[in-house]
Amino acid sequence: MGNRKIFIGGNWKMNKGAGESLQFLDRVIKGIKADKYLMEAIPQRMTAVIFPQAANLFPMYETLKEYPLISLGVQNIHWENSGAFTGENSIAASLESGAGFALVGHSERRHIFGETDEVIGRKFRSCLGNGLKPVLCVGETGSERSRGNTETVIAHQVGSVLTDALENGKINELVIAYEPVWAIGTGNNATASDARECCSLIRETLCRIAGPESAENAYILYGGSVKSSNARIYLQEDGIDGLLVGGASLDPEEFLKILLTSLF
Ligand code: PGA
After folding, report:
1. Does the CB atom of residue 185 touch ligand 1 within 6 A?
2. Ligand 1: does its nearest atom lie under 6 Å from the Cβ of 231?
């Protein structure tokens, strides 16, 4: 993993109101402050990012100003700067509310809300152009895997978005999460070697499109039923730089355990 920081994302999806979000932060910050090791290691070696519902970003940001141990991300943005797009989050408003990152192409956006590679590409490009770091999520469905199409699907998802983004010229410190759809929210996590193979395929695709430096600097994450008891098996693999955690990131005790186990 070299000197790269470990990236731990907590995707809260459509869970937690403002009160519960602040209680979570209170518990996690107390937990970190009570542990000398975590207190030192997190700022030096980890990028921890929580993706709450957009309405909770600002109150969380206000709390975190005092404790910059955890960063914030928005779960979804629109590619246009502003306008008549009822229900969407603009990048500018997300930045102002304290988000530094945005999830783009999460499987729930692809499969429940019908986002295409083209839409995902626009969002990704717009993030890069406006100072919000996109976390691009890719991954095959169960039936794509059983038909032997995993590699083609992943290479296509990464390729279509990045080739587009390259026209914009900027491509640095990318974050890409490999999240097999069949592993999300199912308790059926990928094996460490399957995750390693797909993460290395992502890095190869990146290298082909964006060159070796971009590929080397990118953070490639695994996500899909990660919890404190399996987090380390992925981080021990070469080429897996972090984790994107859904369900297990909602519980402050479990989230603290994931932070701790990821740093060893
Ligand atoms: P999960 O979700 O950890 O609950 O499987 C991961 C994700 O959707 O990012």
Report:
1. yes
2. no
If pLDDT is split at 50, 70 and 90, which confidence band does 169 have? low
Taking the centre of ligand 1 as the mean of its atom positions, its distance from the CA of residue 239, in whole angstroms, is: 20
**Residue 66: inside a domain, yes or no?**
yes
Atom of ligand 1 minimally distant from the CA of 247: 4
Cα gap 48→40, rounded to integer Å: 14
Per residue, the 3-state secondary structure of 116-146, as one string, reads: CHHHHHHHHHHHHHHCCEEEEEECCCHHHHH
CA–CA dist 102, 136 (Å, integer):
8
Each residue's pLDDT tens digit, 200-253: 999 999 999 988 988 999 999 999 999 999 999 999 999 999 999 999 999 999
* Residue 214 belongs to domain spanning: 6-262
Residue at 50 is within a domain: yes
Q: Is the CB of 181 under 6 A from ligand 1?
A: no
The answer as to whether 1 is a domain residue is no
pLDDT given for residue 2 in this prediction? 52
Instruction: Answer whether 224 contacts ligand 1 (Cβ < 6 A).
Output: yes
**Closest atom, ligand 1, to C-alpha of 177:** 9
Domain count, the chain: 1
Tell me what percent of the residues of the chain surpass a pLDDT of 70.
97
Q: Which residue CA neighbors atom 6 of ligand 1 most closely?
A: 246
Q: Can you name the residues that pair with 137 across neighbouring β-strands?
A: 177
CATH number at residue 65: 3.20.20.70
pTM over 0.85: yes
